[in-house]
Write a structure and sequence with these properties.
Length: 333
């Protein structure tokens, strides 16, 4: 299987100059469906649908090419210039209420033009239920004028009435070899020197999210402009918590001392590490620790789910990590 984006021909010097200031995730975004190769089944189906495009629902993990695919398809259908007036792209996580659907989306959908237009609703799983119901009615009413493409990570958050009106396309995580090929290609184009272990670390930390991997590589190259990219460079850029700090947290839990746990958690949070990253690495460490029984690991996993939800809802990182470490202490033999 080829890289996620098939390597495009080297651009001319003038084109390179005009794109040099772009973030790499935009600079290396594919311009046509032929440049996308990690979602073969989806591409075959979309090419069959070009003449009679249905409403679409793209779902799957982040960074797998969902937005890039629909933008590439729109560019092939309309061309770069006409696409500006024929495609409306909205991020539903920013504009998730029913008023946006009733006003902005409806007004655009009902405007007549030769052929049809496309409305792209990114992160559609953030839309409220009322907004999704309103969207369903708009889709029914203006199908002759407009095609809709809903993009989401969690298809379970889309109401059945919307799913039944769309053709579903599942996007899978980008494989290790695809990630390596694409990242190596970008490094070659940008003249970046790197250790192969650094790409291994980048691929591992991004967990199949190519967008995240490219963004981190972009940042690492800026932080260490004239240096060779190393594993430590990647860890610093990503915000990986050093193993000795994770071990300190686990050992503080093993001490069964609340004061020791509180002091350790306080020091870690004060160092500026991201709470979500801390609990993720702590959990992976717990899974490998023989001091925890299988039942204890299940209890800790359940607690991590609760803590993660609280962090998403804006809870204090200090109190949530402290809560988790106390739970780990309770479940440690």
């Amino acid at each position: 299987m080829g890289s996620f984006f098939r390597n495009q021909d080297t651009r001319s010097r003038s084109t390179k100059d005009s794109t040099s200031c772009l973030p790499w995730i935009e600079k290396y975004r594919p311009k046509s469906l032929n440049n996308i190769s990690a979602q073969e089944e989806t591409l075959i189906t979309l090419n069959h649908f070009k003449d009679s495009l249905p409403h679409m629902l793209f779902y799957g993990p982040p960074g797998t090419g969902k937005t890039s695919t629909i933008l590439a398809l729109a560019r092939e259908l309309f061309g770069s210039e006409l696409m500006k007036s024929r495609v409306l792209e909205l991020n539903a996580s920013h504009e998730r209420g029913i008023s946006v659907i009733r006003e902005r989306v409806k007004n655009y959908a009902r405007n007549k033009c030769p052929g049809f237009k496309i409305i792209i609703l990114d992160e559609a799983d953030s839309l409220t239920k009322d907004a999704q119901e309103a969207l369903r009615r708009i889709i029914e009413k203006y199908s002759e004028l407009t095609r809709f493409c809903l993009i989401c990570n969690q298809v379970s958050c889309i109401i059945p009435a919307l799913k039944s009106r769309c053709t579903l396309f599942r996007f899978k995580s980008i494989g290790t070899e695809n990630m390596r090929n694409r990242l190596s290609y970008i490094c070659e184009q940008e003249g970046i020197n790197y250790y192969s272990e650094a790409l291994d670390e980048l691929i591992k930390d991004s967990q199949g999210d190519l967008r995240k991997a490219i963004t981190w590589l972009n940042n690492a190259s800026k932080l260490h402009k004239n240096d060779r990219v190393t594993v430590d460079t990647i860890k610093e850029t990503v915000g990986i918590v050093p193993d000795d700090i994770i071990n300190d947290l686990i050992e503080s839990a093993a001490s069964k001392s609340y004061d020791k746990i509180q002091e350790t958690v306080s020091n870690v949070i004060a160092s500026g590490y991201f709470g979500k990253q801390i609990i993720e690495q702590v959990f992976f460490q717990v899974l490998q620790d023989l001091r925890f029984s299988e039942n204890h690991k299940c209890n800790i996993g359940e607690s991590i789910g609760i803590v993660d939800k609280r962090l998403v809802d804006g809870g204090s990182e200090f109190f949530q990590v402290l809560s988790l470490m106390c739970k780990i202490s309770e479940n440690m033999n």
